[in-house]
Amino acid sequence: MFLNNLFKHVASVQSVTSASTAWGSPDPNHRTRISFLPCLVQATTESAVDLYGKKTYTQVATLFCEYNDENTKIHESDRILFNGITYQIMGIDNAGGQGRHLEITLEKLELVDE
Prior knowledge:
Radius of gyration: 16 Å
Strand content: over 45%
Shape: globular
Largest sheet: 6 strands, antiparallel, barrel
CATH superfamily: Protein of unknown function DUF3599
CATH class: Mainly Beta
């Protein structure tokens, strides 16, 4: 597929695995489910907001990847690691319903004390 030539980045996908602490409370862990995801990541917006005395930086990006059996199992509860940054998945879209590529909306939040 010609789109594969555009996927110049590599990311990984982590899924939540549930476990319990010694006291029985939930202790969510993440395990790498896809360690090599050829993709293209494009930052779309960045913003900074003062929230209760803390600066909150938000970065939104779109990840484009091939539509295939493995990638269609990516869920919004998963997270993406790209360039050492962990992103939450905000939405997954089969662009145009064509089954050619996925567009995954990512968000990174960072709280900074000032």
